Amino acid sequence: MNATLSVETLRENAINSPQEYWAEASKLVDWMIPPETILDDSNPPFYRWYRGGVMNTCYNAVDRHVDAGRGEQIAIIYDSPVTGKKRQYTYKDLQIAVARTAGMLVKYGVSKGDRVIIYMPMVPEAMFAMLACARIGAVHSVVFGGFAPKELAKRIEDAKPKIVMSASCGIEPNRIVHYSPLLKEALALCEHQVDKCIILERPQSPVTLNEETDVDWLTEMQFNRQVDCVPVMATDPLYILYTSGTTGVPKGVVRDNGGHAAALCWSMKHIYGTNPGDVYWAASDIGWVVGHSYITYAPLLAGCTTIIYEGKPVGTPDPGAFWRIIEEYHVDIFFTAPTAIRAIKCEDSEGKYLKNKDLSSLKALFLAGERADPDTLQWAETMLKKPVIDHWWQTELGWPALAACLGLGDTHTKHGAAGRAVPGFDIQIIDENNDPVPTGETGDIVIKLPLPPGCLPTLWQGNDKMLESYLIEHEGFYSTGDAGYIDDEGFVHVMSRTDDLINVAGHRLSTGGMEQVLASHPSVAECAVVGAADSLKGQTPVGFVVLKKANTIQDDILIKELVAKVRDTIGPVAAFKRVHIVSKLPKTRSGKILRKTIRQIIDGEDWVTPATLDDPAGLDSIAAACAS
Ligand code: COA
Ligand code: AMP
């Protein structure tokens, strides 16, 4: 790809000649057999990239760098303030560790196409596990450690894995999260039986393994059973990543091998502007898409050094933790969520922890995961004196769709906007009739099909679910579920969701899922959960419940029970801590709960009584609860 072309030219080329454009990008991947067809558009609205191509993602992320003579370069830096451990792995070390991990999976019967669930904290072994699956063509599905057993069980039941790979614990600053009982509980909830659980025992949580069902990870790794990369089709699945849908049932986003590798390589070069050998750090968790794309795959595909950070932005030990990492490892590009910057700003608004840090290596800070509020952007720019680039994407897309492409010399940003379309993404704003809305007016943010390589080709639940979830609402377009507008300079302002998903500390959660949990409490007649504005986490969920007449539980006890029920069912990550008992919910005459008005009331925004309101008592009840 010619980096001297402007981002505008590339944007046009990608839209006008996608075949040529993405044929060029495919050269960033090492193929065993090059693709026969760049874009298979024979079955719209389903499109496949690089059909006929044969490659291996693990080979591209690991072995090819060793083969190219860069085996001694650092591939992974593990820095864990919560355990006090630091370790570094060269590409050669990584190759051996991944090949052995793959050998362990093969020994326990895993082969091409089999699923493997990875339920792990931020340790290097989690990354070895992902890459080991890729090496043998198995399909991994990583589940974030902050989810409760029921959420883990849903994913196991859907993905039907042969093996679960887990650790004895994760470490949160305030507690050790013992995974073994959580995993046991999840497996007990599933009809699907896994063959084995491979458990990484950590010193912070020794475990007694069940000889029948469990395998000791570290013992197995002592055997030098290294296996090589197997050829897979570009269109074969690399992983499934479950993400919150509008109901309590998570959607299994499928990522393929070839398109994913090409798109991520392209993004590292042109969006982030990295070169092989650069240090790229995404402070997220491998359980999220940011962790998949920009902790594990993209930096390694691009031959960079990636950082696995087992800690938080604040409290491990202080708000200078991120700056220490950037200084210590000479980080070139840093990526995190605005919530993390807000957490630092809240504890160190004057930037005292930045004062003596040498951040000269840093070229830019990229933010994503939620809307970046202008205050936070301004603060980061003032403190760092570097470009701070908000960019936008989703689990489904796999890589940024809106950004300033630093690698193409584009640092043009605008506070409040998430960037301009990345070449390959034809982003439009339309109304419910699929008509374009005028510049500056809000509508549904959609992407014209075909989506570029790297985006989801389908859902694990099948093409019908994919159609229903993303492709039916606006024919010929992918519906992002976000609403916003494009301004006269082409910047896209992402304003809100059009569904009931909320974003809590950069984590995407379904209020519908939380409502299902509340509604299952025997005392609850009906309920609503909405996302209230939160100065640290962006949004936090707030529940409103109407009780059954027969309820006998005291209010304060009931509230505790409801909070605990959401935590136990969805997980601590839901950050569900606030519930109000109300006498009535505001509804339209057709019975639809007026969630938007409820949210406006909680946030203290101006609101008008909707014309369709059924009974004003519902709104009065919410207003009284919020005022109390
Ligand atoms: N395993 C188990 N529990 C976890 C967990 C994990 N991997 N990650 C978070 N949790 C728990 C936390 O311990 C906390 O539990 P608590 O209610 O007992 O305190 C709860 O889930 C909420 O966690 P979190 O959202 O992390 O809130 P916090 O108050 O602990 O920290 C921030 C706030 C802003 C520091 C933190 O959310 C953060 O670092 N966010 C960055 C988000 C991010 O990287 N997003 C990815 C998209 S780019
Ligand atoms: P996830 O799939 O968890 O990555 O969440 C994706 C959703 O997070 C998007 O659809 C948006 O609603 C929101 N989001 C992500 N990045 C941004 C951003 N830069 N600005 C505004 N919203 C964002």
The CATH topology of the largest domain is what?
Rossmann fold
Query: How many DSSP-defined strands?
Result: 31
What hetero molecules are bound to the protein chains? coenzyme A, adenosine monophosphate
The figure for the number of domains is: 2
For the record, the CATH class of the largest domain is Alpha Beta
Cα(first) to Cα(last) distance is 59 Å
State mean pLDDT (0 to 100 scale): 95
Subunit organisation of the chains = single chain
| CATH homologous superfamily placement of the largest domain | ANL, N-terminal domain
The Cα radius of gyration reads 24 Å
Major sheet details: 7 strands, mixed
Assign a percent range to the helix content: 25-40%
Judging by the overall fold, what is the CATH architecture of the largest domain? 3-Layer(aba) Sandwich
Strand coverage percent: 15-25%
Shape verdict: globular
Number of helices: 18
In the sheet with the most strands, the strands line up as 5-4-17-16-18-19-20
Poorly predicted runs of 5 or more residues: none
Give the structural class: alpha/beta
Keywords: Ligase
GO molecular function, one term: propionate-CoA ligase activity
Pfam family, one: AMP-binding
Protein name: AMP-dependent synthetase and ligase
